[in-house]
């Protein structure tokens, strides 16, 4: 860490903080993600292993790790600093529909690449797509996992009592208690396209619930998670006949995917060309 100087806090999550900094000698900007050593889940160490593996396999749209180590009771990961996240990029640029579709095909291609290397991201949302020099990147792999075992057999679909990811963008199947698979990254991308298209999603304003504190926020049975599950089921989604044909067909296809089925990435990309 002696090579770097931290300047300001630019992001904070449940388990970590991200600082903007600079390489002292080169005077180049960096981002440093920090996580307390005594926190129960070593997500940053896990994330760095996933990132190093994917970058080595040619997925250069994920952050390149410049340094990882321990510093003052923190695990620290130094990586490239990006210009802004997808949400801010969309606010500051007036993209045409054609440009938005091109952006989305890039996102599908990125997810296809990490899936080809047996990884699912599990936390896709606009804040985790970054832009630098008009190039798109994908960050925050702290929840990412391999979806196969050591013999490259697909993990079994077992009932899960807790959801993984952001309620607004998490797949319907996760809200319904399924194990995470490629179809869930794929479906989350469809929800993100709704945001790219309209600047919002149909679920941005959930109801205010009275005293749900008896439930953990991630619990499937939490009333808010039940609300999201009901409103994301296909019987509700197909009522959105005002959607452009391409995203409607994308979502329709995503909802029909079996748990372990590989999505037809190239086929759906053609919907947005």
Notes on the structure:
With 273 residues, the chain is of the alpha+beta class. It folds into 2 domains: 77 residues, Phosphorylase Kinase, domain 1 (2-Layer Sandwich), CATH 3.30.200.20; 189 residues, Transferase(Phosphotransferase) domain 1 (Transferase(Phosphotransferase), domain 1, Orthogonal Bundle), CATH 1.10.510.10. The chain is built from 9 helices and 10 strands. The strands form 3 sheets. It has a 5-stranded antiparallel β-sheet with strand order 1-2-3-5-4, covered by helices on one side. Helix 5 runs antiparallel to helix 8. The longest helix is centred in the middle third of the chain and has 20 residues. It is globular and about 55 Å long. The mean pLDDT is 95.
Task: Name the CATH homologous superfamily of the largest domain.
Answer: Transferase(Phosphotransferase) domain 1
Radius of gyration: 19 Å
CATH topology of the largest domain: Transferase(Phosphotransferase), domain 1
SS elements, strand count:
10
* Helix vs. strand class: alpha+beta
What share of the residues lie within helices? 25-40%
Unreliable parts: none
Q: What is the overall number of helices?
A: 9
What is the average per-residue confidence, as pLDDT, rounded to a whole number? 95
- H/E element sequence: EEEHEEEHHEEEEHHHHHH
Q: How are strands sequenced across the largest beta sheet?
A: 1-2-3-5-4
Strand content: 15-25%
Q: Compute the separation of the termini in Å.
A: 45 Å
Number of domains: 2
CATH class of the largest domain reads: Mainly Alpha
CATH architecture of the largest domain: Orthogonal Bundle
Report on the biggest sheet. Answer: 5 strands, antiparallel
Overall 3D shape: globular
